[in-house]
Amino acid sequence: MRLTYALYLVIPLLVGGAVFAIKSAVSGHAQRQMGVGPIIQCPSEVEMGEHELGETAENRFTLRNAGSKPLKIFNVRTNCSCSGLERVEDAKYSRLESTELAPGQTIDLAIRVGVKGGLGRAVKNQIAFETNDPAYPEFVITATINKVTSGICASPTSVLLDTLVVGQRAAADVDLFDYMVPPRRIERVECVGAEGMTAKLLPAQAAAPAGAGDNDAVDVPVGRVHIEFEARKVGPIEGMLLIYVVGETKAPNGIPVVGRVTQPVQVTPDTLVLPVVTAAGPRYISEVQCRAAANTPIEVTVSQKVDGLVVVATPTNETRLVWTVTVSDNSPADRRSAKTARRVVTLTVREGQKSFDIQLPVILAQE
């Protein structure tokens, strides 16, 4: 009797629950047909075309509430940290986590995906979120990158020329590889952003670099670039080697070329201030060091006298790679300026057959 009584209770509950679920689903689709309640209109599949490994693929679309009641979007999530659902307003992107659309309202959305995966293959990313649309309690958008390709890669990926002195030359080689099958051809190379830099495209001369060729692809040597640089002026080297590929209209691949150019002699400090404040009182004498940037002896002399200043240059040791320049203010106390003044000492540096001048500012501070 107890078993029979329990069955009488359980069976109606099961049947009732199933009927309720069926009625809810039918009710949701019926509401969509009549335009009643919240109704989501949004693509469930988005194709993003072919993209290179490491690029950011993007596709924009709209999401609309076609119903008569507010549509709620919440609990947005993705199957990969490389992708996300973003709202686009005034050309600005913001990550969408939840939102609510009034009846008839439309918003602009974008999916951006950092391209990963096997080269030559299609890659799918899914973005899911919950809604209060009875027909779609969970909505899934599948974003497909139709094919992952690769740009020309380089070894090394950047060229470091270190520190050069004016007049010095440097050279470097960059090997180029391609993962495409068949491999693409290099049309030309170009140097920009650095005066004195030239590049020449040569036939491929290297095997694949260690670590290249991952992602089930074969990396094929497609060329070598020989770079030459002549240091012409002091300052940072901020060049770029541009690689143009036959048949491609997009922006060329860029390989940074960096370094620094200095004078053959480094002056430390590059400015003197007199007097020097000490615990014993002001001192009207100070010094700088002139150090040869290359391992070549130099000779430092004072080109012209400066009124009120005594300037003496002497080698620090027998190698004559470092010189000490002493500057003292011997002006009488009553002739020293009542306000800050600036003087310039000109030093002539000789290195072998070459010579050049260095300007050393001296600030005479107000006492």
Automatic annotation (TrEMBL):
Stored InterPro entries: DUF1573 (IPR011467), Ig-like_fold (IPR013783)
Top-level lineage group: Bacteria
Name recorded for this polypeptide: DUF1573 domain-containing protein
The organism's taxonomic lineage, starting at the top: Bacteria, Pseudomonadati, Planctomycetota, Planctomycetia, Gemmatales
